[in-house]
Amino acid sequence: MSKQQYFFLILILGSLSALGPFSIDMYLPGFPAIAQDLNTTAARVTLSLSSFFVGISAGQLLYGPLLDRFGRKKPLYVGLAVYVLASIGCATVHTINGLIVLRLVQAIGSCAAGVASVAMIRDLFPVKDSAKVFALIMLVIGLSPMIAPTAGSYVTAAFGWHGVFIVLAAMGLLLLVATFLWLPETYKPDTTMSLKPRPILTNFWAVLREPQFYTYTFTGAMSFCGLFAYVAGSPLVFMGIFGVDGKVYGWIFAFLSVGLIGASQVNSYLLRYYQNEQLVHTALICQVLTGLVFLVLISGGWIGLNGTIALLFIFLCCLGFSSPNTAALSLAPFSRNAGSASALMGATRMAMGALASMAVSVFSNGTTVPMVSIMAVTSVVALFLLLTGRRHITEQVEVSAEQMAEPVH
Fold first, then answer.
1. Residue intervals in the chain for CATH 1.20.1250.20
2. What CATH number belongs to 8-182?
């Protein structure tokens, strides 16, 4: 493989992986405009974000078997085509209910890109090289929450919120063409692969019965709810309550993403000296304390814009340490069922995240309290699940710093 082929391959696979994150973050600055145009509230617009998380959750369970049964490219073609059509629908929709439904469809389409890109990396590269490739892909994904809302704010300012979905549709179409022209079929379809529900559910049940899996999967999912609550509530908090414009909101979102991404990189270094469990435990305690202090300060009206940004930054740093370690510990006991375990873990996170983002909308009262309350409560629950669940783990499988170099998706 030439350097040019390698570059285009990584570029396409990285773009496929980033399609979902871009679809989540790019339209956030347009929440006030969407609410105004569709004659609804910003809190109800948040449900279009929740429906996207539901679609991602379902898609993770759907595409794994399909990619094994029909090869990598055919399900990817279908997923990207669905994504493009749903994005165009989002750009032309006239009701908030229509947007909520179309975002669900858009998510199911985008999920094909994320799941297929990971599978194709496994197919194309030996284990020795795949860690380096995943590191490059994760760099692209990590940059997405920094670039997408900022880019979205400028697109919204120039062309309105409809323009964001036109841009996303164009991205999906370009990826569909690039996949057809330049991505090889990396996996021969397995006609023996059963798509019947019973064997798939039996496989998932076998994974769920592992104490280390359910302890760290549900701990990580509850901990990660704080991120979903922040993403869902931040447009209302920053643009609605503090009155910043869309462009400033995009830059604030980008700055806060540095905390999450930076902490996850520091985490890889700390694993040389500490075990995963130690880092998870410490990070969750800090997350709980930050969430509770944040809730007290915001409830008393003792904190403004700068203090809110500072505490959110600290909270996201805690997530940057807890999230990769809970993910790695969840999958560590598996060799045979790693694909099913990964899909189930991802689906659980997204499903719980969808509930957290819905709660932000349901309990919205024009203040920052609902968002921060959900962040604090879910953090407390996560710590409780960790402390109670690890009692059932007889022999914990840890993950080394070298193994963590290959990111868990």
1. 8-182, 210-409
2. 1.20.1250.20
Count of beta carbons in the 10 Å neighbourhood of residue 83: 29
- Residue 142 burial (CB count, 10 A): 19
Between the alpha carbon of residue 373 and those of residues 226, 296, 389, the distances in Å are: 9, 10, 24
Average pLDDT over residues 46-74: 89
Q: Tokens representing 57?
A: 């959750």
Of the candidates 334, 134, 110, 367, the one whose C-alpha atom is nearest the C-alpha of residue 236 is 367
Provide Rg for the chain, Cα atoms: 20
Whether residue 110 has pLDDT greater than 50: yes
Longest dimension (CA), the chain: 62
Instruction: Determine whether 40 is exposed, middle or buried from the number of CB atoms within 10 Å of its CB (0-12, 13-18, 19+).
Output: middle
> Between these two residues, 223 and 63, which has the higher pLDDT value?
223
- pLDDT tens figures, 125-176: 776 676 677 767 777 777 888 899 999 999 999 999 999 999 999 999 999 9
Residue whose structure tokens are 């349901």: 362
Alpha-carbon torsion (124, 128, 130, 136), positive or negative: negative
> Tens of pLDDT along 116-126?
888 888 788 77
* Token pair for 90: 């989002």
> To which H or E segment does residue 173 belong?
helix 161-182
pLDDT bracket for residue 265 (50, 70, 90): confident
Confidence class for position 264, pLDDT limits 50, 70, 90: confident
Give the closest residue to 12 by CA, choosing from 146, 140, 168, 166: 140
Q: How far apart are CA 224 and CA 316, in angstroms?
A: 10
C-alpha distances (whole Å) from 304 to each of 143, 315, 321, 371 are: 28, 16, 26, 15
Do the beta carbons of residue 387 and residue 289 sit within 8 Å? no
Q: Taking each helix axis from N to C terminus, what angle separates 369-389 and 338-362, rounded to the nearest 10 degrees?
A: 150
The pair of three-digit structure tokens given for residue 60, joined into one six-digit string:
């993770």
By CB atoms closer than 10 A (0-12, 13-18, 19+), residue 261 is buried
pLDDT exceeds 70 at position 101: yes
**Number of Cβ atoms within 10 Å of the Cβ of 199:** 12
CATH architecture classification, 210-409: Up-down Bundle (1.20)
